[in-house]
Amino acid sequence: MNAPGATSNDTSLKPFVGVWFAVIAVNLIELLVATKATDTRVLFGILMALALIAAGLVMAFFMHLKYERRSLVLSLIPVLIFVLFMTIEMFPDSARLHRMHPQYQPLPKQQPAQQ
Amino acid sequence: MSSHQAVSHAGDTFLANPFATHAIPAPYAIPSRKFGMWLFIISDAITFGALLIAYAWLRIGSVEWPHPFEFSTSILNATVMTVVLVTSSLTMVGAITAAKRADRSKATLWLLGTIALGVTFAVLHLREWFGMFHEGVKLFQNPWGTPVFGAAFFGLTGLHILHVTGGVIYLLVVVALVQGKKISSNGVEIAGLYWCFVDLVWMFIYPMVYLMSAK
Fold first, then answer.
1. Annotated domain spans of chain B
2. What single DSSP character describes residue A38?
């Protein structure tokens, strides 16, 4: 983060080319992971973690947030995270819905040994 | 303060408000228009966030979510779209750096490159859509038996393509303003904020919609 009030006045494009390669690399890793992983929830977790890295790079460099005042970042990002967290709060319902489906077949439980 | 007095502020130069009785410092040391764009982006991010969470909720909660995207066609097409959109963000940064150097001709070229890449992205996306129409996918009907798939897919990608189209029109206006010397470097940077946000949203749509439903 630069000094307060500083903007990205650097007129060189070189650092951004490096970021471009990094974002493309993250997306290619996502593609590779998608061809290997089998469990939906594990795949979802890995892909979203990688997507957050790519989005962070885009926001920090291409959207110049890295060069803005820290107070701007601290005002915008926690609010966004809080609102999205409040939405995600209902997410466990998706797993419950999955188990309520008529076609859902739970794994057979092992009976405890008779004494 | 005279109405024609120039005020230098956060790397930009603009005319003072002739109706202002005293100078009010801009919050966060950035021009108010840029701050306004950031607030718009945050509100738009919440909209997209809610849609993405709803899509993920349906994807995880459905027993038989369709996997219609073949690697050789749809996934490859979506990967090319990703490269095109990320490259358009880089060309947009090129336009901003050229604008900061007051090089209007180069800024125009970079902007036209960004517009061309945006149009390419939209064309590739529409090709994907028409391919799905051909397979019988509609808003509430598809051959795979999960009716909500069409609504979720077209709702999410449709809102994104609407933003891309809006961005292309916005950038065309910016090109005209750059040519007419009616926009500052900060104006170009504000347009860049919007365009890169469209790219940022795709970073989530690509893995969630395409990679998680690959055949």
1. 32-213
2. -
pTM over 0.90: no
Quick check: helix, strand or coil at residue B214? strand
| Inter-chain touch B208–A79, beta carbons under 8 Å | no
CA pseudo-torsion sign A58, A63, A66, A67: positive
CB-based burial, B165-189: b 16+ in 10 Å, e otherwise: eebbebbeebbeebeeeebbbbbbb
Q: Least CA distance to B96: which residue of chain A? A: A11
Q: In chain A, which ranges are continuous DSSP H helix?
A: 14-36, 40-57, 70-88, 92-100
3-state secondary structure (DSSP) of residue B17: coil
CA B149/CA B66 separation, integer angstroms: 7
Q: Each residue's pLDDT tens digit in chain B (215 positions)? A: 444 444 444 445 444 444 444 556 666 778 889 999 999 999 999 999 989 998 998 888 787 889 889 888 899 999 999 999 999 999 999 999 999 999 999 999 999 999 999 999 999 999 999 999 999 998 888 888 788 899 999 999 999 999 999 999 999 999 999 999 999 999 999 999 999 999 999 999 999 999 998 87
CATH superfamily of the B32-213 domain: Cytochrome c oxidase, subunit III, four-helix bundle (1.20.120.80)
Residue type present at position B4: H
ipTM: 0.85
Cα gap B89→B87, rounded to integer Å? 5
Which among B35, B42, B60 has the least Cβ separation from residue A94? B60
Is B29 close to A69, i.e. CB distance below 8 A?
yes
